[in-house]
Amino acid sequence: MDWLALQTATPTPSPPVGPEGLTDYWPIILRGAWFVAGFVAVVFLGWFVVEPLVARYVRQRNRNNPTIQEAVARYVRLLVIVVAFFVAAGTAGYGDLIGDSALVIAAGTLAIGVAGQTVIGSIVSGLVLVFDPEFNVGNYIEWADRSGTVQSITLRVTRVLTPDGELVTVPNTLLTGQAITRPYGRGRRRVVEHVGIAYEADVSEALDHLAAATDAVDDIVAEPTPKAYVDDFGGDAVVCRVHYWIEDPRRHDIFGIRSAYARAVKRRLDDAGIAISPASKRELQGRIEVDEESDRRGVA
């Protein structure tokens, strides 16, 4: 009986083979084709149009920093892939599915943002520094109580070489969250010196010597013209203030220039008989009392 039941059972119809069978899968194939077409179009546009333009801009501003160039190119390509996925999903008609999953995506994004807020903040700060026209590799900067020359700018940190030869890694959030000074930002830098001279000296003659001493230092430029002024009346000397300018401080030893100027000033003032910051003089007044009884005991 079981064998007869198997013989009389209705056979399961097999799916049609050939073009007629493709009609059942045609909507799925069409959606897949639209998804692939949208994804490829956006990736092609992003990788071969947008990314080269961004890379060219970054390369012009950071010629000596291939690290940031590679990092920006990598992140731009990653962003293009993410955008291409959502554009392709919308083109293929999966927008409703993505919309239904928006809450899950938002929750995941929030979790990632909270967990990596420091890293994300550093990356955003790095992008701000990269696109800041006043902040470049090779600039000498001062921040907080440190200073140095910018060696490289990445999306997370900036590396600065200090005058002592230390390579300091500074988080980008630290540089974007406080004031940064560029003392050499305009190609020239004004140097200010203070020199004290004796009150007995001829102040006008001393000022002439202080300004003329800049001619003995080759690295001090003639324009703007060096100037000397009386700055203050100190307790023991008249304090003079000297302004002079040096060209492209990044290529010169500022301490060496200041030392050369100080030696030139010393020679000129010594030749003119003008004392530099004379030694302090103090008059002591008072009275000494001697105990007569103690004095007698000492004599005895």
Automatic annotation (TrEMBL):
Family statement: Belongs to the MscS (TC 1.A.23) family.
Keywords, alphabetical: Cell membrane, Membrane, Transmembrane, Transmembrane helix
Domain Mechanosensitive ion channel MscS stretches: 118-180
Residues of the Mechanosensitive ion channel MscS C-terminal domain: 195-276
Membrane-topology descriptor: Multi-pass membrane protein
Record-linked InterPro entries: LSM_dom_sf, MS_channel_C, MscS_archaea/bacteria_type, MscS_beta-dom_sf, MscS_channel_2nd, MscS_channel_C_sf
Major subcellular location class: membrane
Membrane spanning residue stretches: 32-54, 75-95, 101-131
Keyword field contains Repeat: no
GO molecular function: mechanosensitive monoatomic ion channel activity
Keyword NAD: no
Protein name: Mechanosensitive ion channel family protein
Subcellular location: Cell membrane
Cellular component GO terms held in the UniProt record: plasma membrane
